[in-house]
Design the sequence.
C-alpha cells in the first residue's frame, strides 16, 4: 500500500514537471524555475548559459578587436577571460578592457616578429557565486602579418584569345586584402577577368585592351603596399600550332562545410584548348548547376561545399591535337555538432550518475569534460564511458555544479552543459528516475513523515566473497523484529577513501544484497541503514571485507593487429580469447604514446576499433583486455605501430648563414621542433634569391644533412635564403628569409695565420685541458691548429686538430710535472706565430679535483658470506631536462617481480662534470625510481643495489642517460665593445658564452640601438654563429652612443638578453690620432676601458698588425739606425737619472718609506723599491735548462704584472676613492675562478693566467695567487709608494690564501740563452714612441692607473696552472740580457729617488727626443 502511494505521488510530480518545465535545449542548464513542494522545498535547476560566445577573428596590426561574450543567469554572472589557458588581469591592462556585456575589447592590436602578445586562443568564463562556473568555446585571434609579397607579377605575353595568369602571392591571411590595378587604375573584375583566392589574376580570352602595366595592392589598413609593375603584351594569333601546357594547375584544398572552393586551372596552346572537369572519374556537369560554376579560363568554383563534394577533381584540357590533365583533392571538414546534449540531473549523495553526450564532426571530434570551469581528470570515480559519456560514482556534496561537454576537432570546438543538484535524503527526487541514474539508485521513498525511526540492522556478515562481488546478509533491527515494511541501503567504500557508494535492496523486507563491480584483493568497508516510512534510521557498525584474488578470467585476445589508417588514426583488430570462464562482455583497449608513461583506455563492444586524434608519425603501443562476468582478463602483448606521415607542420629552426668566400655561402640549420616533423625528414628545400631581385628565386633540394654550401654566387652581392623540410608527403612551411652578403674578395692564404687570440690551460692529474680562441684577423685562412707539448719543452709531442675545434684534452701525462704547451694556427702556407703556456699537472694526492669517475662513493654495507645478487637490466629513461626514470629487475624475486619482504633498493647517480662530483643516493621500495632536479643536457650514470636486513648486493652495472636540453637560462657574459683602429665607423663586440647554456650554443643574436628604451623589436639584429665569440659591426654613425645586448640560443630556443652595454663611437679625426683617441674615448663613455695588457708586443718597425707581426718590411739599415738611436737616448737618460739619485738624502728616503707605510698600513709586504731587481729569466722556448738558484736574505719576492702604456696620456688618473671599487671588482673576478669553467677575464681575448716571476733570486717564502686582472695604484701616493702599491695591488687580495704556504728553499730554475728579444716569453722593452696598437686586439680592463709621467715597463709572465690555484712562483735566472733590459733596470733602480716634478721634467725631455726619433723614422 505504502509503495503504491509513493509511486502514484512520483507519477503526478513527473506529469507536473513535463507540463511546466521549459525546453532544456541550449548550453548549460536551462529548465524551469518553479518550486515544487514534495514535503519540503526542492531546489530547481537555474538557467545559466551563454547568449553569445566568441568566434574566430582575423585582425590587422593596430586595429581594435572585440571578442563577443554574453551570459544569462537570474543572478548577474561575473565575466572573466582566459588567453591560452591563463586568466587575463584586466584591472591593470590599459589596452584590454572588459565591456559591460562581458565582451573583451582589445585596443590597438600589437604584433611584431618577436612580440605577439595579442594573438592566441581566448575563452570567456562566467561565474555565479554559490552556483558554479561555465566556460565558452575557445576562439582564435589571428593577426595578419606585415604585408609581404612572396611572389610578384612578372612581364609576360599572351596570344590574342588565349589565357594569362599574373602571380601575386602574399601571406594567406592577407589574401582577402589584395586588389589589382591596370595602368595604376583599379581593375574591374568580371567573368573574363577574375582574381583567385590566393591573389593571382587570371585573364581569359585576352584582347588588345588587356595589354598594359599591372600591379597588385595589399590594403590591410594603413599605407597600401604595391608590388612591382609587370607588363602584359597581347600578341597576334600564332600561325603554327603550339604545345598544350598548364600555366596554373589545381592544388588540393581543405574547406569547411558551407565555404566556397576554387580549383584554378589555366592551359595555353594553339589551337586554344577546351577545359572540362570530372569528380571521382565521373563527368562533372557545370552547365545549369547551381553550385558548380566553370569560370573563365577553365577554373572551377564550388559554392557552399557539402560533405558529398569531397573527392578527386580532374581538370582535362583538350585542343584537338593533344589532351593533358591535372588532379587535386577536395577535403571537406565539419565543425563539431551535438547529437545528444547532457541533461540536468537530480541525485542523492553516494549515488552513481552518467552525463550523456554524443557528438559528430569531421575530423572526428575529441571530447573532454569540464566541471565548474575546471578540467575533469578521469579517476576511479570519474570515468569516460562509451567514448564520450561521463560517469560519476559515489556522489559527494562537492560534486554539485555545472558540467560541460566540450567537443573539439581541427576546425573548431563547441560546448554543451548541464547542472547536477544533490538533494538531501529527506527530499524526494521530483522526476521519475532518468536513464542517467544507474540501477543501484532507482528505488527511493516519498518524503518522510514524523515518527519513530528504525534502529541499526543487526549481525551484518559477508556470506559470499568472490573476486568482484560480495553478498551481505543481516538481521532486522531490534526496533522492528518483523521488518516487513523496511527497505535497506548498503553504503560501501574502499578502505581509506571518503567517497561512499550506495546499493539499495530491491523490495521491502529483503535482508540480503549482492554488491558487484568490486576490485579483487581489495578491502571494502560496508554499513547498512534501515528505512521506514518516517525516514532512514541508525547505521550498523562498519564491516571490513577483502575480496578474493582474481580467478577464472579471460585469456589474452589472439591475433591483435594495429594498422595506421591516417596520420592521426589507427585501427586495432583482434579475435575472441580462446580461454576464459564465462561469456566475454566487453573489451578495454589501451593505447600509449612511445616515451610516455600514462595509458589511455576506451571501452569497446566489438573486435575492432579506430582511435582518432593521435599525433602524426608517432609510435603508439596498443593492448587489449577482455572482460567477463568476473572482471578483466589477461592483457595481450603490446603491438606497436606508427601513424602515417604528413608534411612537416613547422619550419626548420635556427637558420644561420656563414659567408665562406666571394662566391659561396654555407647554410646551417636545425630540424623542425620535435613533434612537428610529421614524418621522416627526407631532405630540405632551399630557396634563395638576390635581395635586389626578389622575384628571381632559385631552388635547391638537398639531403638530410643540416647544412648546405651554396656556390656560384656573385661577388659582393646580398642574398636571401629560406629553408623548408621535406617528407615523402611534401614540403613543410619555410623559415623566414635570412640575408647575407658575399665577400668582395676571397680570404687570404698567401701568408700564414696570425697568433691565436687566447690560450687557456687547465691541469688535472694525468691530463691537461687546452682551450683557445681563433686569431683576431679573420681574413686569413686557418686550416687547423697545431698543439705542441712536453716536459720543459713544447716540442716533444705535436697534435693537429681541425680549424673548427676550440678545445683539446692532452691525455696520459705524468703527475706533478711541469709541461710547456704551444699553440699555432696553420694553413697551406705554413704555421703561424706560436702562443705559449705552461702548466704543472697535479699530484696523485691532490683530491681537490681528480679526473677519476668514482670518488666518495656511498658506504656499501659489508655483505654476509652469501651476498645478494645485484639488480639487473638497469635502464635510464629520459623524461625531461631535469628528470630521468630508473628501472631495473631483481633476479632474486619471483617471476612476477612482486616484492613481499622488507628489502629496499638504493639508487645512486652522479655526473662526471666536474670530475670530483659526489654521488647522490636515494632509497626505493619498488623496481623504479624517478630522479629529479638534474642539470639540463648533462650525462649521468646510475647504478642500483639491493639491501635486505644485513645482506646487501654489490652495485649493479651502470646505466647512462643524458637529460634533454633546455633554453639557456643566463645571458652571454662579459660583453665588451671596442672600436676598430683606423675604422671609426666599425666596432667589435666581444663576449663569453652563458654560464648556464643548458645545451650546445647554436648561435647568438646581437641587438643594438641608439635608444636604450626602444621596443626590442625596433633594435637592429646581427646573427652570429654559435662558435664565434666576437663580431664586427660596420657603418655606424660617428660620435653617437649605441647600446648593445646579446642573446644566446640553442636547439630549444632563445635565452635571456644581457644587460645593455653603452658605447659612443669616436669623433672623426686624423688617422694618426684615431687609435689613441678611440681607446681613451671608449674608456670614458660606458664601455669597458681598453688596456694594452701584458700580452702586447711592440710592432717591429711601427707596424700596426696585431701581435707584432710586421705587415710592411723596413730596410735593414733603417732598423739598425732606430735601435742604435734608442740605445743612445736611453743611456743619456740613465746618466741624468743617476746624477739625481746621488742627491737624494737618507732622511728623505726614510720619510718616503714612512709615508708609504701610512698609505699601505694593512699590507703584508714591506720593502723598498730599490730592492727590486729586473727578472732573472729570459725564457727561450727552444733551449730550456734547470739550474740552482741563489739565496737572498729578503724573504718577500716582489711580483709585477704591469701593462705597458703607449705614452703618458694613455694612463687614466684616478683618486683614492677608487680603491674600494678596485677591491670589489677584484673580488668579483675571483668568484668566477672555478675549476670547471674558464675565468671571466681569462676567457677574453689576450687574457690568460700569468706566472708571477720574482725580481730577485731569492726562493719565495710565500706564494701568490695569480689573477688575470691588472690592479692599480692610487694617484695620490709618491713614486716610492707607487712601487709598494704596485706590489700590493698585484698580490694583496690573495695574501690570505697564501700565508700558510711555504715553498722549497732550493727550486730548479729555467736557464735560457736568449737569441732574440722578440722570441722570448718576456720582453720588458719600452715600445717606440710612435708605435700604436689596434683597439680591437685582445685587451684587459684598465681599472685604474697612477698618473705617472714616465713609461712603466711590462714583464710578461707565463702561467703555471689553473686560475684560482695557489702555486709558488717559478724563480728564474738570466745570464745575460740585451741593452734595453739593462737600461730598464737602471731606470727602475733610480726612479724611487726622484721627486715627481723632477721626473716630469725628465720625461718631457724624453718625449721630445722620442718625437725627433719619430720624425727620423717617418722621413
Sequence:
Amino acid at each position: 500500500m505504502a509503495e503504491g502511494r509513493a509511486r502514484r505521488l512520483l507519477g503526478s510530480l513527473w506529469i507536473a514537471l513535463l507540463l511546466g518545465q521549459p525546453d532544456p535545449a541550449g548550453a548549460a542548464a536551462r529548465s524551469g524555475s518553479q518550486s515544487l513542494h514534495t514535503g519540503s522545498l526542492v531546489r530547481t535547476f537555474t538557467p545559466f548559459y551563454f547568449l553569445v560566445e566568441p568566434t574566430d577573428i582575423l585582425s590587422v596590426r593596430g586595429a581594435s578587436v572585440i571578442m563577443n561574450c554574453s551570459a544569462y543567469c537570474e543572478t548577474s554572472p561575473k565575466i572573466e577571460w582566459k588567453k591560452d589557458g591563463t586568466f587575463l588581469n584586466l584591472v591593470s591592462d590599459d589596452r584590454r578592457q572588459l565591456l559591460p556585456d562581458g565582451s573583451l575589447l582589445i585596443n590597438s592590436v600589437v604584433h611584431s616578429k618577436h612580440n605577439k602578445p595579442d594573438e592566441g586562443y581566448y575563452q570567456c568564463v562566467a561565474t555565479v557565486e554559490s552556483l558554479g562556473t561555465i566556460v565558452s568555446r575557445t576562439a582564435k585571434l589571428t593577426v595578419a602579418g606585415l604585408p609581404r609579397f612572396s611572389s610578384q607579377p612578372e612581364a609576360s605575353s599572351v596570344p590574342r584569345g588565349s589565357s594569362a595568369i599574373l602571380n601575386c602571392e602574399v601571406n594567406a591571411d592577407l589574401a582577402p586584402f589584395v586588389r589589382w590595378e591596370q595602368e595604376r587604375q583599379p581593375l574591374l573584375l568580371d567573368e573574363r577577368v577574375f582574381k583567385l583566392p590566393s591573389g593571382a589574376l587570371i585573364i581569359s580570352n585576352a584582347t588588345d585592351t588587356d595589354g598594359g602595366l599591372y600591379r597588385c595592392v595589399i590594403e590591410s589598413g594603413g599605407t597600401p603596399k604595391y608590388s612591382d609593375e609587370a607588363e602584359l603584351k597581347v600578341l597576334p594569333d600564332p600561325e603554327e600550332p603550339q604545345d598544350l601546357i598548364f600555366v596554373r594547375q589545381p592544388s588540393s584544398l581543405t574547406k569547411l562545410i558551407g565555404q566556397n572552393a576554387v580549383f584554378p586551372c589555366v592551359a595555353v596552346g594553339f589551337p586554344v584548348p577546351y577545359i572540362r572537369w570530372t569528380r571521382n572519374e565521373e563527368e562533372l556537369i557545370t552547365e545549369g548547376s547551381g553550385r558548380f560554376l566553370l569560370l573563365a579560363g577553365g577554373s572551377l568554383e564550388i559554392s557552399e561545399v557539402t560533405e558529398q563534394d569531397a573527392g578527386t577533381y580532374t581538370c582535362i584540357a583538350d585542343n584537338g591535337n593533344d589532351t593533358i590533365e591535372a588532379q587535386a583533392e577536395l577535403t571537406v571538414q565539419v565543425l563539431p555538432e551535438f547529437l545528444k546534449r547532457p541533461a540536468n540531473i537530480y541525485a542523492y549523495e553516494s549515488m552513481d550518475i552518467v552525463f550523456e553526450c554524443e557528438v559528430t564532426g569531421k575530423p572526428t571530434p575529441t571530447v573532454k569534460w569540464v566541471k565548474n570551469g575546471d578540467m575533469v581528470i578521469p579517476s576511479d570515480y570519474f570515468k569516460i564511458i562509451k567514448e564520450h559519456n561521463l560517469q560519476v560514482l559515489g556522489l559527494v556534496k562537492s560534486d554539485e555544479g555545472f558540467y560541460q561537454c566540450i567537443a573539439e576537432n581541427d576546425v573548431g570546438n563547441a560546448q554543451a552543459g548541464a547542472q547536477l543538484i544533490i538533494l538531501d535524503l529527506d527530499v524526494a527526487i521530483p522526476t521519475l528516475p532518468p536513464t542517467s541514474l544507474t540501477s543501484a539508485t532507482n528505488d527511493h521513498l516519498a518524503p518522510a513523515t514524523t515518527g519513530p525511526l528504525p534502529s541499526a540492522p543487526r549481525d551484518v556478515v559477508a556470506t559470499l566473497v568472490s573476486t568482484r562481488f560480495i553478498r551481505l546478509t543481516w538481521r532486522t533491527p531490534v526496533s522492528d523484529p518483523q521488518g516487513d515494511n523496511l527497505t535497506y541501503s548498503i553504503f560501501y567504500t574502499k578502505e581509506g577513501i571518503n567517497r561512499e557508494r550506495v546499493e539499495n535492496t530491491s523490495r521491502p523486507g529483503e535482508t540480503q544484497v549482492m554488491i558487484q563491480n568490486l576490485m579483487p584483493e581489495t578491502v571494502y568497508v560496508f554499513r547498512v541503514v534501515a528505512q521506514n516510512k518516517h525516514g532512514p534510521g541508525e547505521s550498523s557498525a562498519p564491516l571490513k571485507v577483502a575480496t578474493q584474488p582474481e580467478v577464472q578470467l579471460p585469456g589474452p585476445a589472439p591475433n591483435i593487429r594495429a594498422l595506421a589508417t591516417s596520420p592521426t588514426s589507427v585501427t586495432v583488430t583482434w579475435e575472441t580469447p580462446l580461454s576464459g570462464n564465462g561469456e566475454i562482455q566487453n573489451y578495454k583497449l589501451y593505447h600509449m604514446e612511445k616515451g610516455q608513461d600514462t595509458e589511455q583506455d576506451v571501452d569497446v563492444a566489438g573486435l575492432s576499433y579506430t582511435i582518432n586524434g593521435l599525433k602524426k608519425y608517432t609510435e603508439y603501443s596498443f593492448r587489449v583486455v577482455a572482460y567477463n562476468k568476473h572482471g578483466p582478463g589477461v592483457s595481450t602483448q603490446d603491438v606497436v605501430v606508427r601513424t602515417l606521415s604528413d608534411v612537416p607542420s613547422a619550419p626548420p629552426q635556427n637558420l644561420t648563414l656563414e659567408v665562406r668566400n666571394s662566391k659561396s655561402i654555407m647554410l646551417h640549420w636545425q630540424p623542425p621542433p620535435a613533434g612537428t616533423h610529421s614524418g621522416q625528414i627526407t631532405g630540405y628545400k632551399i630557396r634563395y634569391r638576390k635581395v635586389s631581385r626578389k622575384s628571381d628565386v632559385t631552388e635547391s633540394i638537398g639531403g638530410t644533412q643540416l647544412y648546405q654550401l651554396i656556390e656560384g654566387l656573385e661577388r659582393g652581392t646580398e642574398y636571401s635564403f629560406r629553408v623548408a623540410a621535406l617528407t615523402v608527403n611534401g614540403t613543410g612551411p619555410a623559415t623566414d628569409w635570412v640575408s647575407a652578403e658575399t665577400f668582395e674578395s676571397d680570404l687570404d692564404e698567401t701568408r700564414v695565420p696570425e697568433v691565436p687570440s687566447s690560450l687557456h690551460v687547465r691541469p688535472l692529474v694525468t691530463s691537461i685541458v687546452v682551450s683557445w680562441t681563433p686569431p683576431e684577423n679573420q681574413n686569413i685562412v686557418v686550416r687547423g691548429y697545431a698543439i705542441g707539448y712536453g716536459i720543459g719543452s713544447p716540442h716533444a709531442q705535436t697534435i693537429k686538430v681541425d680549424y673548427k675545434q676550440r678545445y683539446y684534452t692532452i691525455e696520459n701525462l705524468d703527475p706533478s710535472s711541469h709541461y710547456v704547451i704551444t699553440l699555432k694556427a696553420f694553413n697551406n702556407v705554413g704555421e703561424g706565430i706560436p702562443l705559449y703556456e705552461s702548466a704543472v699537472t697535479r699530484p696523485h694526492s691532490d683530491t681537490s679535483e681528480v679526473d677519476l669517475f668514482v670518488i666518495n662513493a656511498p658506504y656499501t654495507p659489508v655483505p654476509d658470506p652469501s651476498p645478494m645478487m645485484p639488480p639487473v637490466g638497469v635502464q635510464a629513461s629520459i623524461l625531461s631536462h631535469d628528470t630521468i626514470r630508473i628501472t631495473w629487475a631483481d633476479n632474486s624475486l619471483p617471476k612476477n617481480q612482486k616484492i613481499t619482504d622488507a628489502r629496499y633498493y638504493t639508487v645512486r647517480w652522479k655526473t662526471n662534470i666536474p670530475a670530483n662530483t659526489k654521488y647522490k643516493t636515494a632509497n626505493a621500495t619498488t623496481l623504479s625510481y624517478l630522479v629529479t632536479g638534474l642539470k639540463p643536457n648533462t650525462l649521468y650514470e646510475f647504478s642500483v643495489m639491493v639491501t635486505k636486513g644485513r645482506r646487501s648486493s654489490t652495485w649493479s652495472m651502470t646505466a647512462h642517460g643524458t637529460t634533454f636540453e633546455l633554453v639557456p637560462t643566463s645571458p652571454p657574459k662579459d660583453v665588451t665593445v671596442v672600436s676598430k683602429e683606423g675604422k671609426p665607423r666599425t666596432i667589435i663586440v666581444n663576449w663569453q658564452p652563458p654560464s648556464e647554456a643548458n645545451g650546445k650554443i647554436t648561435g647568438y643574436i646581437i641587438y643594438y640601438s641608439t635608444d636604450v628604451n626602444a621596443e626590442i623589436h625596433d633594435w637592429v639584429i646581427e646573427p652570429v654563429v654559435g662558435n664565434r665569440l666576437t663580431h664586427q659591426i660596420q657603418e655606424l654613425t660617428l660620435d653617437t652612443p649605441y647600446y648593445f645586448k646579446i642573446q644566446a640560443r640553442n636547439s630549444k630556443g632563445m635565452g635571456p638578453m644581457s644587460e645593455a652595454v653603452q658605447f659612443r663611437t669616436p669623433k672623426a679625426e686624423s688617422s694618426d690620432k684615431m687609435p689613441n683617441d678611440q681607446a681613451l674615448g671608449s674608456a670614458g663613455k660606458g664601455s669597458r676601458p681598453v688596456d694594452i695588457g701584458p700580452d702586447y708586443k711592440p710592432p717591429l718597425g711601427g707596424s700596426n698588425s696585431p701581435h707584432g707581426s710586421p705587415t710592411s718590411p723596413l730596410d735593414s739599415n733603417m732598423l739598425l739606425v732606430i735601435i742604435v738611436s734608442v740605445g743612445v737616448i736611453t743611456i743619456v737618460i740613465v746618466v741624468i737619472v743617476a746624477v739625481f739619485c746621488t742627491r737624494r738624502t737618507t732622511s728623505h728616503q726614510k720619510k718616503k718609506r714612512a709615508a708609504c707605510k701610512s698609505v699601505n698600513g694593512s699590507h703584508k709586504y714591506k720593502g723598498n723599491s730599490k730592492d727590486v731587481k729586473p727578472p732573472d729569466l729570459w725564457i727561450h722556448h727552444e733551449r730550456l735548462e734547470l739550474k740552482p738558484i741563489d739565496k737572498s736574505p729578503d724573504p718577500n719576492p716582489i711580483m709585477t704584472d704591469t701593462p705597458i702604456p703607449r705614452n703618458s696620456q694613455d694612463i687614466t688618473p684616478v683618486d683614492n676613492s677608487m680603491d674600494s671599487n678596485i677591491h670589489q671588482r677584484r673580488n668579483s673576478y675571483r668568484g668566477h675562478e672555478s675549476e670547471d669553467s674558464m675565468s671571466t677575464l681569462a676567457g677574453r681575448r689576450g687574457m690568460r693566467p700569468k706566472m708571477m716571476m720574482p725580481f730577485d733570486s731569492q726562493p719565495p717564502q710565500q706564494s701568490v695567487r695569480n689573477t688575470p686582472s691588472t690592479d692599480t695604484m692610487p694617484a695620490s701616493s709618491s713614486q716610492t709608494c707607487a712601487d709598494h702599491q704596485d706590489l700590493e695591488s698585484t698580490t694583496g687580495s690573495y695574501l690570505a690564501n697564501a700565508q700558510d704556504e711555504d715553498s722549497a728553499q732550493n727550486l730548479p730554475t729555467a736557464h735560457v740563452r736568449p737569441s732574440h728579444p722578440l722570441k722570448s716569453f718576456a720582453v720588458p722593452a719600452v715600445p717606440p714612441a710612435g708605435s700604436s696598437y689596434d683597439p680591437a686586439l685582445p685587451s684587459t680592463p684598465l681599472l685604474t692607473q697612477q698618473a705617472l709621467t714616465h713609461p712603466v715597463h711590462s714583464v710578461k709572465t707565463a702561467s703555471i696552472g689553473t686560475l684560482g690555484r695557489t702555486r709558488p712562483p717559478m724563480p728564474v735566472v738570466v745570464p745575460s740580457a740585451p741593452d734595453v733590459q739593462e737600461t730598464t733596470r737602471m731606470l727602475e733602480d733610480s726612479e724611487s729617488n726622484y721627486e715627481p716634478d723632477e721626473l716630469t721634467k725628465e720625461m718631457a725631455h724624453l718625449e721630445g727626443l722620442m718625437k725627433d726619433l719619430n720624425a727620423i723614422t717617418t722621413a
Remarks:
- The radius of gyration is 43 Å.
- The first strand starts at residue 36 and ends at 37.
- Residues 1101 and 1114 are 7 Å apart (CA to CA).
- The mean pLDDT is 75.
